[in-house]
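User: Quick sanity check before I run a bigger batch. Here is a single chain. Can you write out its predicted 3D structure?
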Amino acid sequence: MSTAEAPLYQFISAADKVSTAVGMIVAELRKTLLGWKAYFSIAEVLSPLRDIDKWLRRKLRCTIWKQWGRAGYRELRKRGVSVREAWNTSKNVGPWRLSKTPALSLALPARFFRSLDLPSLAG
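Assistant: Done. Predicted structure follows.
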Protein backbone atom coordinates (compact mmCIF):
# COMPACT_ATOMS: atom_id res chain seq x y z
CA MET A 1 0.00 0.00 0.00
CA SER A 2 1.40 3.37 -0.98
CA THR A 3 1.34 6.44 1.22
CA ALA A 4 -1.37 7.92 -1.01
CA GLU A 5 -3.63 4.92 -0.38
CA ALA A 6 -3.20 4.96 3.40
CA PRO A 7 -5.85 7.63 4.23
CA LEU A 8 -8.33 5.97 1.88
CA TYR A 9 -7.61 2.57 3.43
CA GLN A 10 -8.18 3.88 6.96
CA PHE A 11 -11.46 5.49 5.97
CA ILE A 12 -12.82 2.47 4.10
CA SER A 13 -11.68 0.05 6.82
CA ALA A 14 -13.42 2.10 9.50
CA ALA A 15 -16.61 2.25 7.42
CA ASP A 16 -16.32 -1.47 6.66
CA LYS A 17 -16.35 -2.39 10.35
CA VAL A 18 -19.72 -0.74 10.93
CA SER A 19 -21.13 -2.06 7.62
CA THR A 20 -21.91 1.35 6.22
CA ALA A 21 -23.80 1.49 2.93
CA VAL A 22 -21.49 1.75 -0.08
CA GLY A 23 -23.29 4.87 -1.30
CA MET A 24 -22.43 6.63 1.97
CA ILE A 25 -18.80 5.47 1.76
CA VAL A 26 -18.54 6.81 -1.80
CA ALA A 27 -20.17 10.11 -0.79
CA GLU A 28 -17.52 10.62 1.90
CA LEU A 29 -14.68 9.50 -0.38
CA ARG A 30 -15.91 11.87 -3.07
CA LYS A 31 -14.90 14.91 -1.01
CA THR A 32 -11.34 13.65 -0.55
CA LEU A 33 -10.95 12.43 -4.12
CA LEU A 34 -12.18 15.69 -5.66
CA GLY A 35 -9.63 17.57 -3.56
CA TRP A 36 -6.87 15.21 -4.69
CA LYS A 37 -8.03 15.48 -8.29
CA ALA A 38 -7.78 19.28 -8.15
CA TYR A 39 -4.34 19.07 -6.54
CA PHE A 40 -2.94 16.47 -8.93
CA SER A 41 -4.64 17.81 -12.07
CA ILE A 42 -1.36 19.31 -13.26
CA ALA A 43 0.39 15.94 -13.12
CA GLU A 44 1.65 14.71 -16.46
CA VAL A 45 2.18 11.11 -15.37
CA LEU A 46 -1.22 9.55 -14.84
CA SER A 47 -0.22 5.92 -14.19
CA PRO A 48 0.09 6.32 -10.38
CA LEU A 49 -3.34 7.93 -10.32
CA ARG A 50 -4.78 5.07 -12.38
CA ASP A 51 -3.22 2.61 -9.93
CA ILE A 52 -4.93 4.39 -7.02
CA ASP A 53 -8.24 4.30 -8.92
CA LYS A 54 -7.88 0.55 -9.51
CA TRP A 55 -6.92 -0.08 -5.89
CA LEU A 56 -9.87 1.96 -4.63
CA ARG A 57 -12.38 0.10 -6.81
CA ARG A 58 -10.90 -3.21 -5.64
CA LYS A 59 -11.17 -2.15 -2.00
CA LEU A 60 -14.80 -1.14 -2.54
CA ARG A 61 -15.51 -4.50 -4.24
CA CYS A 62 -13.99 -6.19 -1.20
CA THR A 63 -16.25 -4.16 1.10
CA ILE A 64 -19.35 -4.97 -0.96
CA TRP A 65 -18.46 -8.68 -0.96
CA LYS A 66 -18.17 -8.62 2.84
CA GLN A 67 -21.55 -6.91 3.10
CA TRP A 68 -23.16 -9.53 0.86
CA GLY A 69 -21.92 -12.24 3.20
CA ARG A 70 -23.45 -15.65 2.56
CA ALA A 71 -25.68 -14.23 -0.19
CA GLY A 72 -22.65 -13.56 -2.40
CA TYR A 73 -23.49 -16.32 -4.87
CA ARG A 74 -27.06 -15.04 -5.34
CA GLU A 75 -25.85 -11.45 -5.75
CA LEU A 76 -23.36 -12.50 -8.44
CA ARG A 77 -26.06 -14.46 -10.29
CA LYS A 78 -28.42 -11.46 -10.12
CA ARG A 79 -25.74 -9.33 -11.76
CA GLY A 80 -25.26 -11.65 -14.73
CA VAL A 81 -22.34 -13.83 -13.66
CA SER A 82 -22.47 -17.41 -14.96
CA VAL A 83 -23.29 -20.25 -12.58
CA ARG A 84 -19.77 -21.67 -12.83
CA GLU A 85 -18.01 -18.33 -12.24
CA ALA A 86 -20.33 -17.46 -9.34
CA TRP A 87 -19.79 -20.87 -7.73
CA ASN A 88 -16.00 -20.71 -8.09
CA THR A 89 -15.96 -17.18 -6.72
CA SER A 90 -18.20 -17.84 -3.74
CA LYS A 91 -15.97 -20.57 -2.32
CA ASN A 92 -14.34 -19.89 1.01
CA VAL A 93 -11.47 -17.57 0.03
CA GLY A 94 -10.64 -14.20 1.55
CA PRO A 95 -12.55 -11.13 0.37
CA TRP A 96 -9.43 -9.22 -0.73
CA ARG A 97 -8.41 -12.07 -2.99
CA LEU A 98 -11.94 -12.41 -4.36
CA SER A 99 -12.14 -8.69 -5.12
CA LYS A 100 -9.78 -9.21 -8.06
CA THR A 101 -11.70 -12.09 -9.67
CA PRO A 102 -13.29 -11.64 -13.10
CA ALA A 103 -16.71 -12.45 -11.63
CA LEU A 104 -16.65 -9.51 -9.23
CA SER A 105 -15.25 -7.24 -11.94
CA LEU A 106 -18.17 -8.28 -14.15
CA ALA A 107 -20.75 -7.89 -11.37
CA LEU A 108 -19.32 -4.57 -10.14
CA PRO A 109 -17.63 -2.89 -13.14
CA ALA A 110 -16.10 0.57 -13.16
CA ARG A 111 -19.36 2.02 -14.52
CA PHE A 112 -21.12 0.79 -11.36
CA PHE A 113 -18.83 3.01 -9.29
CA ARG A 114 -19.27 5.89 -11.77
CA SER A 115 -23.03 5.53 -11.27
CA LEU A 116 -22.41 6.06 -7.54
CA ASP A 117 -20.54 9.29 -8.48
CA LEU A 118 -17.12 8.00 -7.46
CA PRO A 119 -14.68 10.38 -9.17
CA SER A 120 -11.67 9.06 -11.05
CA LEU A 121 -8.30 10.62 -10.29
CA ALA A 122 -6.86 9.82 -13.70
CA GLY A 123 -9.72 10.97 -15.88
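Residues 5 and 52 are 7 Å apart (CA to CA).

User: Great, the batch can go ahead then.
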